[in-house]
Structure formats: structure tokens, C-alpha cells
Amino acid sequence: MIIILKKNANEQKVNQLIEQLKAKGLEIHESQGVQTRLLGLVGDTTQVDIENIQANEVVDQVRRIQEPYKKANRTFHPADTVIEIAGRKIGGGHFQVIAGPCSVESEAQIIEVARAVKASGAGLLRGGAFKPRTSPYSFQGLRADGLELLRKARKATGLPIVTELMNTTHIPLFEDVDVVQVGARNMQNFELLKELGHTKKTVLLKRGLSNTLEELLMSAEYIMAGGNENVILCERGIRTFETSMRNTLDISAVPMLRRLTHLPIVIDPSHAAGMSWMVESLSMAAIAAGADGLMIEVHNSPETALSDGAQSLTPAQFDALMKKVKKTVEFFGKTMD
Fold this sequence. Notes:
By secondary structure, the protein is an alpha/beta fold. The protein contains ten helices and 14 strands.
């Protein structure tokens, strides 16, 4: 349920209303827009008498919300959320590109790639230290050593780092990671999501391979309900009946999520198709659809990569792509800062 307050409502009476609602065991989420001030009621609202609330002199409208997610709901928070990561903004007209290798393989590799993507205009560095793989015999990442190499790359370039967390027991290792990624396979690992809700880390939450948008938003709600509202959503392709590509990029998810939620939306074209030659087209489509950022895999030697080489761009290919990205982002009225 949301309560829309009248313009210039008496502050003392608004506070009295808030205290009355809290006395009913409700949590109040307040949102101040340019023209509108809202009170979002979270909890059992069945005991709330809408007519009684509507009669309050500071109340303009009262609406019941059908969606089970509250904090991620745009109705509660009409303005786009802008998240700042070490000086880089994403959301609300701010566009970011996250780039780097699927897996951190060596110090030389990650620093070389980090320097290359920064020179091309990427704002954040991605790299997998802990890698979830379909086969137990595939490369699983350098783990804690990989995190240390990412820190070295950050020191060398100044780029904030983005890397995947797979297990709650690893959280202490991620204390100085700038953005914690929750991968597609862990989107509904609710214990992990709840623990991340108790941190202040920015979380990049990837959509599961077969999950609905409502399920994605409910996963974001788990994090936000714990007190951490620094959540970025990532569409990375879903599993369909199509077999000509790795996954199917649900480009329609961008405008639909834009309608449903205020959270920033990033597209991962590399995982979506699994083919490097498709990354440019999908990136352009993502920008046109209204995405707030891209997450692109870049490797200095894709043919020898220990994971996902087929979908990785070379630094030269990434540089050429970024020239088009910058022009397209500018055309659609967003900024890369």
C-alpha cells in the first residue's frame, strides 16, 4: 500500500500519521520525488482502514499495491535510482560499461586487460575469481588468489572491480570488492541474498536462466529488505527452445523492468549469445531499449582463454565497439561519467 501525501502537507501531522502506522507494526518507506511525496507501507496492511487514512487532511490518495515486491517497486520510488560506485554513477541517465575477462588467469593478463578497457572508456573492471562451471572438470577460477589479482589491477588502473560471490562463507574475502555479482545460478540462493542485504555493498544481480522478471525483482527484494538498497539488475539471456545461440537475450525485459522498478538495469550481451560477433548488435539494441549499462567480456587472447573465449572480445574489438557505444549513448541522451 502507498499513501500519496498532499503538497505542502503539515510536517507535524505527517509525522503523527507515520507514528500511527508504525504502531500497527508496519514499516514505512518514504520517498520524495520532484512533485510527489509517498509513504510506502510494508507489512500486513489488511488491518489498515483505507477510508480512515484517506480522510486524513495530509493525504491525497491511498492505493493498494498488488505486486509482492515493495522496495524494488517503482510505485514506491517513482524516480530512477542512481548508484555511485567509487565516483562512477549508474542509473537515472548515467551509463556505465563493465568490462574484463570471464576469469582472472594471471597478474599479467588481468592488468593488461584492465589497462586496455580503461583506455577504451570502461568505467568498471569485471573478472571472475570464483567460477561456477557446468562441468566439475572445468577451470573453477583462482579463488582468493584471483581476488588479490583483481585488487592489483584496481591499484594499477583505478577501476572499481566487479566479481562474483558464490557462497556466504566467502563474504569476508569480498570486504574491499566494489561490486558483488550474484550469478544467474544463485539468483534464488535466498540465504546468500539475505546476507548481502546486511551489507552495504553494491550488488549486481543477474537474472536466472529460466526465471521471470517478477522472480528477479523478488530476489532483489530479499537484498533490499535487509537494508541494502544498492542493487543493479542484470539481464544476461534466458533459456528458450532456440539452439543456434547460447541463450536468448530478452531485450523486452529492459522496458518492462523500467516500468516495474526504479533500479538500474544492465545488459550482458556476452553471456546472452555466447558468440563474440553478436556482442555489438546486442549492445546497440540494449542502449536503444533503455539499459543503464553493459557488461562485456574482454580477453587479451580469447583463443587461449580458460573460460568463455568464444564470447570474449579482443581489446581492439572492444575499443572499436566503445566508439559506437559512446555515440549511441549520447544519441539517446545519457552520459558516461
